[in-house]
Amino acid sequence: MSQGPAPSRNPPFTVGLTGGIGSGKSTVARLFETRGAGVIDADQVARQVVAPGTPGLKALVEAFGKCILDPQGRLDRAALRDLVFRNSQARHRLEGILHPMIWEAIDHQKSTTKAPYCLLVVPLLVESGMQHRVDRVLVVDCPEALQRQRAGARDGVSPQQIQAILEAQAPRGQRLEAADDILDNSGPPGELEPRVEALHRRYLEWAATTGDR
Ligand code: ADP
Fold first, then answer.
1. Ligand 1 center–CA 149 separation, angstroms
2. Which candidate, 107, 189, 193, 196, has a CA 20 to 30 Å from the CA of 83?
3. End-to-end alpha-carbon separation of the chain, Å?
4. Which of 8, 20, 14 is nearest to 39 (CA)?
């Protein structure tokens, strides 16, 4: 794990929260939010930038055609997934369109927050190589067996489906290597609170000393 962060390049001070499926990201994000962190959910932003009537959706239709729309004119995610599946050129094109829009929307949300610091929840932060976009990478971690068990109980999906998602995500070791801070979520939920509290205090301190506000 690294030392404290350098001055924030893009205030407010932003912690990127990541972790594999079922590791506890949403649970941890709620604990930070109740303490006053400004939580931004990158997946939610990614849906907003391609909502009906947005420049994002228009750009996607221009690039991939109307076959990516459902009969109501909304983005047909399954159709888009099929289109870029095993086609790295199409996937890069898609990312080239979406990523700048998503980060612009995130920067906008950051600029309007009144919170002392932001917690940006990005499930695929390490996979997308976007660590440089945040001041600090916080990985919530537990053994894969617990991830499987908790995600299965939450979503009611099959072990095969969970396995496929796990395989599409970065291996645990790679994610931990990218971490500045690690939040161990292998114990009962009650153990999370004091760990979150300790991190929150550090982030408040750093937000006060590294931001230019
Ligand atoms: P993620 O957002 O990373 O997919 P969640 O926060 O939704 O993970 O957690 C997955 C499931 O496991 C949820 O149902 C959550 O309530 C539960 N959970 C999270 N942490 C713990 C824990 N320490 N002990 C038991 N269950 C947990």
1. 10
2. 107
3. 27
4. 14
* 183 alpha carbon – ligand 1 mean position (Å): 13
- Sheet with 118-121, side-by-side order of all strands: 38-41, 118-121, 14-18, 136-141, 181-184
Question: Which residues, 6+ apart, have CB-to-CB distance to 208 below 8 Å?
Answer: 116
Name the least confident of 10-14, 21-25, 111-115, 147-151: 10-14
Query: 175 CA to middle of ligand 1, Å?
Result: 18
State the chain's mean pLDDT as an integer.
93
Q: Who lines ligand 1 at CB under 6 A?
A: 19, 21-27, 150-151, 154, 185, 188-189, 192
Q: Where are the domains of the chain?
A: 7-37+117-213, 45-114
pLDDT band for position 1 (cuts 50, 70, 90): low
Model confidence pLDDT, tens digit, residues 28-87:
999 999 999 999 999 999 999 999 999 999 999 999 999 999 999 999 999 999 999 889
Ligand 1 mutation pick, 21, 26, 27, max ligand atoms within 8 A of CB? 27
**Centroid of ligand 1 to alpha carbon of 27 (angstroms):** 6
Q: Is 7-37+117-213 assigned to CATH 3.40.50.300?
A: yes
Evaluate whether 7-37+117-213 and 45-114 have a shared fold. Answer: yes
CATH code of the domain made up of 45-114: 3.40.50.300
Q: Which atom of ligand 1 approaches the CA of 29 most closely? A: 6
The 10s digit of each residue's pLDDT in 75-92 is: 999 999 999 988 999 999
Nearest to 10 by CA among 152, 120, 101: 120
Across residues 187-212, what is the average pLDDT? 92
